[in-house]
Amino acid sequence: MISRLRYTFREMWASLSRNLTLTVAAVITATVSLFLFGMTLLIQEGFDNQLSEWTGGVEMIVYVKHGATPDQIAYLEGALLAQTSVIESAEYCDETCSAALATTLLAGDPGALEQLLPGIPSLFKVTPIDQGSGAVLRSLKAEFSSLPNVVDVKTPDEAVETLSQLKSFFGVRTLVMSVVLLLASALLIWNTIRTAMFARRREIEVMKLVGATNWFIRLPFMLEGLLQGIAGATLGSAFLLFVNDDWTKGVRGFPENSGLAGFVVTDNYPVMVCLAMIVLGALVGAVGSATAASRFLDV
């Protein structure tokens, strides 16, 4: 068993050394394609952070003064739900819930977050009955703003709509580019394995004559492709983490009113994206090499 493993890794390394140029090209292509794939996921998450206040059908947010009493909050809830022809529901988010939301939205601006948290307001997330009620809700902004203990009322505007359009624009295009490059990477790995098998066709013939099984012959080549995919994914993941960290530091230096704080992706999401990239890279390498090893075994 140990001798077989030693043989497999030795043959894999020999094949990599013989086709160094093709191997480097395949790894670079996998790195770029998987980096674009990871960037697509991070960009979409950043847009989701910016738009999180308006997801789930919420069309208006009513901010309640910090420290409002339960009676005052109940009064505001009754005033909102009284608009039965317009409002389907008014979900209350207390100060703890509001603080968690602000932590996500202002991840790139810890200074502003630190100033906001001590006196953070609670809020109502108001859901309209239908999509056509947005204009009516905006017309109610002045009325709700005048209610006691209401700090502010926010409704959708052109900036939010533009942000949604940008999310779709960038998301689709970067995903298409990453898929195309992933296919190119799989083809390069496929071609690398094909070239390696063709270069060693006499050795393969001899091995088959002395009784070597097809799987015994294929395994070093399949392992070679798998390694190429994992190497590309690892390099792409390292570059992605570097770019995300650099972007986070850059956003924190922007003016507080820049509106870009929500585009910072924090917590464990970038790490999870990197793990997905490595799995995808391994899959691309395995599929490309396995296909070539099966197709060109009889060289």
Structure notes:
The chain has helices at 2-18, 20-51, 70-81, 95-105, 110-116, 134-139, 141-145, 158-199, 201-209, 214-252, 269-295; strands at 60-64, 87-93, 122-128, 150-154. It is an alpha+beta fold and 299 residues long. The protein has 2 domains: 2-52 and 160-295, no CATH class; 60-155, 2-Layer Sandwich (Alpha-Beta Plaits). Helix 2 (20-51) packs antiparallel against helix 11 (269-295) and helix 8 (158-199) packs antiparallel against helix 10. It is elongated. It starts with a helix and ends with a helix. The mean pLDDT is 76.
Summarize it.
With 299 residues, the protein is an alpha+beta fold. The chain is built from eleven helices and four strands; from the N terminus they run H-H-E-H-E-H-H-E-H-H-E-H-H-H-H. It has two domains: 2-52 and 160-295, no CATH class; 60-155, Alpha-Beta Plaits, CATH 3.30.70.
**Radius of gyration, taken over Cα atoms and rounded to an integer in Å:** 28 Å
Low-confidence stretches: none
Write out the strand line-up for the largest beta sheet, numbering strands in chain order: 2-3-1-4
Gap from first CA to last CA: 27 Å
- Structural class, by secondary structure, is alpha+beta
Give a short account of the largest sheet.
Answer: 4 strands, antiparallel
Q: How much helicity do the residues have? A: 55-70%
